[in-house]
From TrEMBL:
InterPro entries in UniProt: CusS-like_sensor, CztS_silS_copS, HAMP_dom, HATPase_C_sf, HATPase_dom, His_kinase_dom, HisK_dim/P_dom, HisK_dim/P_sf
Gene Ontology cellular component list: plasma membrane
Listed EC numbers: 2.7.13.3
Species for this entry: Gilliamella apicola
Listed name of the protein: Sensor protein
GO molecular function, one term: ATP binding
PROSITE patterns: HAMP, HIS_KIN
Topology relative to the membrane: Multi-pass membrane protein
Entries under PANTHER family matching the protein: SENSOR HISTIDINE KINASE CUSS, SENSOR HISTIDINE KINASE YKOH
Annotated HAMP domain residues: 191-244
Function (record text): Member of a two-component regulatory system.
Protein location: Cell inner membrane
Histidine kinase domain sequence ranges: 252-470
Entry annotated with the keyword Transmembrane helix: yes
Amino acid sequence: MYWMKRTKIISFRLPLIVCLLTCGLLYCFSYLIESSFEKFSIQQNVSELNSVISSIERELIYFSPNDNRDELFQNILLILTGHHHLFVYIIDESGKILYRTRGPNLAVALKPANLEKIIAQHGTTISNLNKSSYRIAASRVIVENNKQYTTIVAVGRDLQLEFISRLRSGLGLLIAISCVLALIGSFISIYFTQKPINRLIKKIERINLKSLNYRIPTSSVPTKYISLVRAFNKMLTRMEDVFQRQRNFTADIAHEMRTPITNLTTQTQIVLNSARSTEEYREILYSNLEEYEKMSQMISDMLFLAQADNHQLVPNLIDIDLFNMLTMMCDYFEPLTDEKNITLNLEGNCSHIQGDKLMLGRAISNILSNAIRYTPQNEVITITLSQTSEKRVKIVIANPGKKIASRHLPHLFDRFYRVDESRHRNGNDTSGAGIGLAIVKSIIQTHKGTISVESDDKSTRFIINLPTAI
């Protein structure tokens, strides 16, 4: 439920983000258009005002009050021809109007201080008269006899302001429509994008422990999700393998534990059926003790493997001379080898390593005991030491015997895995619980080493590579 709510929130959040980004981009674009047009309008007005003022100033320079004014007025009319909403106001030093176009009274539009400031700075200003807006410029020219004329020119801004207002409204409407379309488009896009994902989710939700062998076909998903489906299928394969191993492990440990418990129960029932002598009771107790020891060893081994799985094994590092250690182990296994007339042959040498002597001794003992168990009589088991590099050594334990099929080799280090299934499932198997090689692999990996196995018609070889220092 929480996941569904979160999905809905995300599905709404993404279109909202797209909508906001669209609004932001369109607003910036609209602002640039509006400001560009406004700057262009200002430049156009200022250029127009300056052009008219310059033309009027030239006419005033050649104007004489004693001459006919009609010529001046005609020239000014010619100057104003083609200029719309342009107003001129010319006064002399006494404030007498020399020329004035119909329109606003520009004499009252500017205060004297503002007028002098505009003339001094050759600038413009904005003034509102009778609910209309004007951009005003002014200049002063001195003609013959030191007469001076002040020219005030104004251009109407109402049309420009109206256009800018309509432009702003149009752009605002465009932004609103674009945002709505972006929102709707995002929802539609997300819907069609999530549709194959939702179908994929439904397929995944139907997978449970009983259907781990199911694989999602890549042909039923869009191309962009094929890599995701392949990764998921690989994960299912790994999970299926783990669960299968877990089921096998549970069944195997139950079987291994049931055998000694069944023996103990049977022997106890036999003893209770009739009276026994002290010697008979002693023999039965010894037999029961052997079963208890098997169970205790099995539990100890499982605890050891559990520690290895959780990376809790901490080796007690000391300097180890492998040649001396293997020599002592050969002497230890001599009684077993003498029974089958088997010879342990130690060859080669290597540098000392840093490791846990007890752990490594246990690992090599497990391999040697297996080698002795499966080696025919009157054969030789060869242990070879070699230095593969300055920082690595190799131990090869080769025993002659029946070849192990290649299909079994990758699983020899699995827990409770037996090459001979018949021996694994009958009660006459005295070769252990089937976790010896799993312990060997855990110990070697704890020492940052590797172990592998090879088998052919001549021999089976366990190959151990160890670093000289962990």
